[in-house]
Backbone:
């Protein structure tokens, strides 16, 4: 019996060592194995209000506080890190979201977890471009327009570009909003843009207010995804468009292995070098792996009351755009 016990624990140690070497490939399993070797099969029931913070189990209240601290820490380097982590591809993903939205002049946008304003800035530019195109068409439709008439038409189009369409950026994190406001001032987005401190799970807006609701790279960080989706449905008008851009599950097995290696081995290092914050970016990587896959998230959006729900994979499923309508 003694010999059998020794052999068992040596075998367990060998398995643990192998898991330790491949932890970057199977982090969830590795942590589960650590828990197993610690409690040795003891079943402990988690509190009912528990959730996850990356691969860590925390209370819902603790997660809200921890996520707030993460984004307060990285706010100033958020955009620089986005470029570094995605090699600039995040700009193309956000452009794709705007093309999917295809807003028209007069659209009222609510950009939740919009922090630094990337989506709202693109929205305003998109609508301004449409207004210019419309003005050109109106001028061409005139038989013999005078130069004064042309100038007045363009002036009217430019004047209305900021007042007809509005974007409201709503974010729970004041540090992110401060960075967004600074960027808006630097880039000349003075009118047509509002900034509101608010929780995505309990929005400070009335029912049936907005034409479009967007949340980009934010919903995986909330405590209750179901509550966020219900709030999105509540504040949208009938016919309103819900759009979510979020990291998702890679569909190609080879790309998935490369993506995992890059995510767990490189992104925290970049976070340390560029932002001086390893832990925050380690959490961001882990939060991506804990987010529901495309089909599961689609079902959650449908459960919240949205119709015509569909998703589009970008870059092999590294990110996805989920879309739905309030009908």
Residues:
């Amino acid at each position: 019996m003694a010999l059998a016990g020794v052999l068992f624990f040596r075998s367990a140690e060998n398995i643990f060592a192998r898991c330790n070497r491949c932890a970057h490939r199977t982090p969830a399993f590795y942590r589960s194995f650590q828990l197993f070797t610690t409690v040795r099969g003891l079943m402990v029931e988690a509190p009912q209000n528990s959730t996850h913070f990356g691969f860590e189990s925390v209370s819902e209240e603790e997660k809200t506080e921890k996520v707030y601290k993460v984004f307060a820490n990285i706010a100033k380097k958020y955009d620089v890190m986005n470029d570094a982590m995605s090699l600039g591809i995040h700009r193309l993903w956000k452009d794709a979201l705007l093309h999917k939205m295809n807003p028209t002049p007069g659209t009222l946008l609510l950009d939740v977890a919009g922090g630094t304003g990337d989506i709202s800035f693109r929205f305003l530019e998109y609508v301004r471009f449409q207004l210019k195109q419309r003005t050109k068409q109106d001028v061409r439709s005139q038989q013999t327009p005078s130069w004064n008439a042309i100038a007045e038409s363009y002036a009217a189009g430019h004047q209305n570009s900021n007042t007809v369409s509005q974007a409201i950026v709503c974010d729970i994190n004041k540090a992110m909003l401060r960075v967004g406001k600074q960027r808006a001032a630097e880039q000349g987005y003075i009118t047509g843009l509002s900034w509101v401190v608010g929780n995505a799970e309990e929005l400070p807006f009335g029912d049936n207010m907005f034409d479009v609701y967007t949340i980009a790279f934010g919903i995986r960080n909330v405590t209750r995804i179901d509550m966020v989706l219900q709030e999105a449905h509540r504040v949208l008008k009938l016919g309103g468009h819900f759009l979510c851009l979020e990291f998702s599950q890679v569909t190609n097995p080879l790309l998935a292995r490369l993506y995992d290696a890059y995510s767990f081995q490189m992104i925290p290092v970049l976070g340390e070098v560029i932002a001086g914050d390893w832990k925050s970016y380690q959490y961001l990587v882990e939060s991506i792996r804990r987010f529901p896959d495309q089909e599961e998230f689609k079902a959650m959006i449908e459960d919240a009351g949205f119709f015509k729900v569909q998703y589009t994979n970008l870059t092999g499923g590294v990110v996805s755009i989920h879309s739905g309508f309030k009908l």
User: Anything to note?
Assistant: Strands lie at 50-53, 56-59, 108-112, 166-171, 193-197, 210-216, 236-247, 307-314, 319-325. The chain has 13 helices and nine strands.
